[in-house]
Every structure is written in C-alpha cells, then in structure tokens.
C-alpha cells in the first residue's frame, strides 16, 4: 500500500478552499495557521472527525499492538488506569479537548451540533477561546456533610409524604405498602389493620437502607426550599455504609436498591456513573426475564411490581444512554412486557384470582398513583423511537451502504416528522388533568414543557438527518426550521415560568435542555427563520428576549453547578455575538426590556451544588446533549 493511499484525505477547510492539504497530524498546515480545527469528513457516512482524534486512535492502536506482541502485561496493570489510558479518546470528538475527555460520547450526545455552529465563519475568531473555556472544568467538590441517622418521627412523616406526592408518582418502582411497612417497623408504629402488606418481621439492614434512601431523595427538594435543616446527603452517606450488606445483584430487591441510588444521583455527586448503574439494572432485568411477558401466571401484584421495576430501568437507560449517544441497553423490538396497569396496589392485592390486565379497562379514565408514571413511560417510548430514527447511525450494507441515506431525502424525513408529531400530539391529549396539582408532575404547564422538549428533539433530529447545507428554498425545510424554533422558544419560556413560580427544582438534565434550546434558537435564526415572519422586527425582539432569558437561567444554574459553568459562559459569548451581529445597538436596552424574566430570589436560599454520577467528564456528567442531539429525559 502506498503512503498516499494510507494517508487521511484532505481536510474540509482545504477542500473548500481548493488548496493543497499536507495532511499532517494533529492539524494540517493550513488549519494550524488559521487556528481552526482540522476536520475530516467521511466520504461514505458524512460524519465529521477531528484529525487529531484519528491520529490519537492510530497511536493507541500502535500501542495496543505492541503490548499484544510483547505478551501478557505485568501483574496489576489490568486493574490500574494509567495516565495514557485516561487520555485515550473514546469517541469522535471534533474539538481540541479530546485529551481531557475520558468517556465515549456518541453522535446523539450533541457534540456535533455545537461543532456545526462553531464551524460557521462568524464564529471562527472565537472558536479557540470557546474550546479552551469548555476544557476548563472545575473539580467537583465533595459535599461537606456528615452522616446522620433517621430523623425524628414528625420530620420522617413529612419526608414520607413528600416522597409519595412528589417523587413516587413519577418513578413508581417501589410498592407503597412495602415502604410504609418499613416505616412502621423502623419507628415502632402500628400499621392500619387493613394494610395489604402487614408488618410481620423485624426491621432488617435492607429496610434501613431503603428508608434512608427514600428520605435522602425526598429531602432534596425540602432542603432546597428551606423546609428542613438536615442535608439530604447525610442520609445518603449513612445508607452508603450499608451497601456491602444488601443485595445489588441477582434479584428484584437488588435492582430496586440500585434504582434508589441512581435516583439520588440525579441530584448529587455519588462517585459513580449513572450510565453504568443503568446497564447493570437492565442486564439484571433481562436475566430475570422482566422485559418479556411472564411465561406462566404469577400473583397479580407481583407481576405489576415486576413491570414497574422494568419500566423504571427502561427510563433510566433511555436517559443515560441517550445523553451519551450510546446504544440503548435493550431494543424496543425485544420488549414484550406490557406497561403497568393503572390501578392502586391495594385494589390489585384484594381483587382475587385473575389475570392482571383483566382488572384494568383501558377505555375507562381513572386517576391513580400509577397514572403519571404510565404516561411518562409512553412519552419515553416515543422519544426513544425518535432517537432511534434520527440519531442512530445507519448500518452500512454489503451492497454499498444504501441504508445510509434512508432519511436523507426531505420527503421521507418530513413524513417521519409528521408521524412522530402526531404521536406526541396524541400523547399530550392523554395526560391526566388535575384540578389541584400537588406537585410538579401534576401541573399542566409541566406536561406542556415535556411536550415541547420532545418536539425540540424531533425537529432537531429531522434537520440533523438532512444533508448540509440546508436548502431553505424548500417549504418543508422551512416548516421544520420554524417548528424547531418554536419548540426551543417554548421550552425556555415554560421552564422559566415554572422556575419563577418556585414549582421546579434544578438538575444538570434541565441545564442541558435549556442550553440546547438556546443554541437551537441561534441556529434557526442563522438559517433565516425570522425573515419568514409577518413582522420581522417584532420577531427579532422576541427572539432576543428569549435568548436573554435563557442566559439568565443558565447563569442561575452556573452558581449552583460550578462544573457546568463553562457551558453557561460559552452561551453568554455566543449570545452576545449573536445580538451584536444581528440586532446591533437595538439590544442595548435589553435588561430594561426583559425585567419580568427574573429568577425568583427565594430559590437561591439553602442550595448546595449537586452533581450527577460520573457521566464521563463534564460534557457527559452534566447530562449535556447538544447535537443534532440525543434523548434527554427529565428528573425533577
């Protein structure tokens, strides 16, 4: 093989300028001189890769081959992560920060979308500064909290009530009566005489762990709202000491224990990857056959519980894998188990013999503690199909890769968009309406937020699947751009309204959603979305107001999540450049014009920065998802 044939092709910059590319790593001479990323475009798939990233992969290949040829490594190397291993790139990053990234982040993660924005000529002068800013990731500081024991009975009762009304209805994987039974045992209380699951034994280590984790999760919002003084991390630290004494593999108890840890990890740094927890959970579900309908009849409440456990694992998998752009742990085609039935546990437990699904009539509307969880799963399944359709790379067939361009045609892409939009519209109509909502998950504006969040996922996916540059002469493409702009705008407005009302707390997942929405608005405007508005001036003003509000929300997040601050700073830079470039001096009085878009100062009291599990460096740990992007589910 000749040297020429083994070299990488010319970079996109040299090809565009039609100049000779010296093809040197980590950058060719022209890209080094221009201080821009040296990007290689795969001629078959159209995917973009940094030349430096490919060079590092080649060097790693050489190192591994040499290691293999030298025989077995010295004892101990398999358990220690060397500095070289830490620097090894795990995914197709397209910036100069590969060395600081220590986990695979695929196409669905959003890296490609930010790269697309930064590849535009007007951002070239800022590209290096932006990438340097993103590379500056503050160290996550451990919580300065000491372990504490179970709280007094009055506080415990409030924590339990808060858990059932605020968390349990959205993630209903624990049986209510089992939790109550543990509570009665730990506090020496007598359960009601008609309790479906009576207390018959002494409290175990497992019981203690479960109740501590329930209190840790519940205390998160109470502590942030100033309703209690005990930091939730204290409960977790005490529960953590029990991990070696409780099951974490082999049965449904183990899965529930891991799910509790993962739920707490949505709010606080727990020192492990939520994605890895999700994989362990789903692996056990598959080994236990929970993803399939039972082959023989089992007790109805037990079957209902198994369904709830599996679908909670499904939600966690779609959340973590979607954010990181990784394949889902189980495909939709392999799932045959039904959703949980919309019924209370005590009704199922006392209904007598019969199949579980015979107890529930789908056409009959009824509100139970399962109602929100069921519609949440249904929404996740829609977004999962959207992700698979638009964000999963097509496999190249032996005949030459015909499958690669299945959704490159505007006709097929638009038809898929219409189909998924119809599914989301139907889903929104099925969400129960609560006259007096007790928590975020019973609020109509929360479900509006979730609807527009998935509309944003859908429209971005449709645009992402089309070849670049987009041809805005097509009416279908213009409709997609407009729908994408509207969805991003509504996401920011609805979240800002919920935040101002004190109805919603903050997580890294929400930060990612708002950051993504803000970038999407600037992207759509760069495609000329405002020029097609009846009143372009008014549309520009509204767009600037929305982007400014987005910046304020991200700044609010930045103060509470220092490790996410780099992204807020980058957005501020993009925002100011956009405003200065498109609106000029008309933006000088922005602060006076958007005075109502403030952050409720009451929300700033008593907050301690949380952090997701590991999620493999800042980009992934923040739940970030910025591309033609991946799935992002939301956990209050």
TrEMBL record:
Primary localization class, coarse: nucleus
Stretches the record annotates as Disordered: 74-101
Tell me, what is an example of a GO biological process annotation in this record? Answer: DNA-templated transcription
Q: Which residues form the Zn(2)-C6 fungal-type domain?
A: 10-40
Q: Where in the cell is it found?
A: Nucleus
Report keywords, A-Z: DNA-binding, Metal-binding, Nucleus, Transcription, Transcription regulation, Zinc
The name on file for this protein is: Zn(2)-C6 fungal-type domain-containing protein
